[in-house]
Amino acid sequence: MGLGTYATAARATKGIPTLLVVVLISTSANLRSIHAEVFAGIHWAPKIANATVVGTVNKIKLFKKEELEPILKTSNRIGQGGFGDVYMGYLSDEIRAVAVKKAKSDVKLVDQFANEVIIQSRVLHKNIVNLIGCCLEVDVPILVYEYVSNGSLDNILHDSNRVSLDLDLCLKIAAQSARGLAYMHSEITTPILHGDVKPANILLDENFVPMISDFGTSRMITIEDHYTSTIIGNWGYMDPEYAQTGLYTSKSDVYSFGVVLLELITRKKVLDPDISNLLGNFYDPYTTKKGVVELVDPEILAQGTIEMFHSLAEIIVQCLNLDVDLRPKMADVAERLQYLLK
Description:
Helices cover 30% and strands 16% of the residues. It is an alpha+beta fold. It folds into two domains: 9-146, 2-Layer Sandwich (Phosphorylase Kinase, domain 1); 153-341, Transferase(Phosphotransferase), domain 1. The radius of gyration is 21 Å and the shape is globular.
């Protein structure tokens, strides 16, 4: 099966069970139905609720392993972590760079990577990183993404090689990131919760346009409430309600985004032991207005008005509200940030 072929396919190799990939294609080139059995028969198949999930699906190219091997060299590695490695390179028929995400051979990562394929096949937005395709001829899928040249927001904010950020650029990054999350929550047929919103999962292109990335822990929501048996995420950005109850909702993403917004305007890391009070300063509505001005990065503070930062503080406080019901929707946050940008 060649590059970009979509079909029902079976591959059998010596010592490996037959892999069966079922993609149900409708008569429309742009509208496809993916059922819970979309990866039925694949030994790394994820389990998706027992429900049929229907919606718009984007084309995902199926790569052969040999097509990606020239990129998967140590000299091309641009990142690594507990999940595996990320490589940058060029496909034989492309002039644009791609980022290839290769997991460790760890059974614990199987569902996470398969879930990422399913989730990203369902989204198409300028503020969400684009999944070009994947390779299924391995134990854990190899994922091929568009390459986003400026790295993560976490690196931009906190690396030793400080990148200059003015207020307008910060607001642009915040508003467009919020727009990407709002699209996932409320603008597609089956809402998607990201599940791990943090600066490391917001990538920036050459024009500092933000793109939401890393959907391994994301969830497609087919019912109103979504409980998880295992708490997953980064504690500094995690919704306290989710940590206590296991209930993950769209307002959990909103909480995490509030922490990101706080880091963005202060350029201080929420998990930095030297500033452990960063979040605490925003929980008390009576001290917020004073606290936010004191915490804002001097370069950013020099370009805005007190009223501007009071408005940002109000958004942050509302996102971080311990009462889930009082947190705004992501679409509202995006709209308010866009208004401040004008």
